[in-house]
Amino acid sequence: MEADDNGKKHPVINKEICLGCGVCARNCGPKAIEMQRRPVQVITPVNSTHRFVLQAIEKGTLQNLIFDNEAFANHRAMAAVFGTILKLPPMKQALASKQLKSIYLDKILSVNAKHKQEEMDRRIAERKAGATDQEETTV
Fold first, then answer.
1. Which parts of the chain have pLDDT scores under 70?
2. Which helix (DSSP H) or strand (DSSP E) does residue 34 occupy?
3. How many CB atoms lie within 10 A of CB 132?
């Protein structure tokens, strides 16, 4: 969401990651986003599981995807522990993973780190592109 000059918020679609699934339209207020067919169909991730995992990592809710039954106390506890580990700095994540001796956790943390690095690289590239555009307009 971005605010305009009057402070009113408007949805902003990131076309690079938008799959056209309509989840955002269902979560926004009535008539905030209108779905339209694209002229070129977007290729979705390898499978639904891949898409769910990527979306959960992006939203910071991977622990809820893995431990999804909140009726069980052990699922709630594991989701809380896992969520806390994912929020730790990389060095502490590595220590936690080593203590748990979990290949699974190692893999999840490496995917999470890769996703964060890709996001940081994308933001840096956007800033550089914006700075270049600004320089061209001032010249």
1. 1, 19, 40-46, 100-102, 104-105, 131-139
2. none
3. 10
Domain definitions of the chain by residue range: 1-44, 48-120
CA atoms within 13 A on the CB side of 131: 6
- Cα end-to-end span (Å), the chain: 31
pTM of the predicted model as reported, rounded to 2 decimal places: 0.35
* Residue 137, pLDDT score: 60
pLDDT for 109 equals 76
Distance CA 49, CA 60 (A): 16
The pLDDT value recorded for residue 134 is 62
Q: Per-residue b/e over 74-86, b at no fewer than 16 CB within 10 Å?
A: ebeeebeebbebb
H or E element at residue 10: strand 9-10
Q: Residue 72 and residue 77: Cα distance in Å, rounded?
A: 9
SS3 content of the chain, % helix, strand, coil (to 5): 60, 5, 35
